[in-house]
Amino acid sequence: MRANTGLWWLLSGFFLLMAVVYTVWASVTSPDQAWHTGLEPVGTVALLFACLMSALIAFYVGRVHAAQGGELPEDVLTADIDDGDPELGEFSPWSWWPIVLASSAALGMLGLAVGVWLFPIGLGVFAVAIVGWVYEYYRGYFAR
Predict the structure, then answer these.
(1) What string of pLDDT tens digits covers the 144 residues of the chain?
(2) For residues 132 and 125, what is the distance between their CA atoms, to the nearest angstrom?
(3) Rounded Cα distance, 77 and 84, in Å
């Protein structure tokens, strides 16, 4: 996390530098106007907000690292790749329910875009898909 904090602070400094360069460049490229009317504020504000957002992430990651009190495996030079390998849980590679769930989302979005009558159909398919996905281990071939 120490490396991540450093990268986010570096990115924040880069955005701040680019905001200054952008503002100066915008005022220099329009010499026929006064300096305050030649500025283009949208790009400057966007770069300043990007600087502030990356500084916020850097501050948060730094505080989390300080609160943990330990080093992550990616910060230790002698760590193996398997040290940072988390337990990902149990998956059902044979399950068809995620595809049904994705098609219900597609039906719902299509209903919002094309015709409102299609949206309740998407909601119905969503209800069936989510119940089927949650309870697929409780019935049928894979029941326990």
Answers:
(1) 788 899 999 999 999 999 999 988 888 887 777 766 667 789 999 999 999 999 999 999 999 988 887 777 777 888 887 877 777 777 777 888 999 999 999 999 999 999 899 999 999 999 999 998 888 877 766 665
(2) 10
(3) 13
Among 143, 138, 136, smallest CA distance to 95 is for 136
Q: Tell me if 67 sits within 8 A of 77, measured CB to CB.
A: no
* Best CA proximity match to 123, nearest among 109, 136, 113: 109
Q: How far apart, in whole angstroms, are the C-alpha atoms of residue 19 and residue 41?
A: 10
- Residue 96, both tokens: 């068809």
Residue 11 CA to residue 6 CA, distance in Å, equals 9
Angle at 20 between CA 18 and CA 23, to 5 degrees: 105
Query: How many of the other CB atoms lie within 10 Å of CB of 107?
Result: 19
Residue 126 has a CB neighbour count (10 Å cut-off) of 17
In the chain, where the domains are located: 2-84, 97-142
Q: Which two tokens stand for residue 51?
A: 């600087």
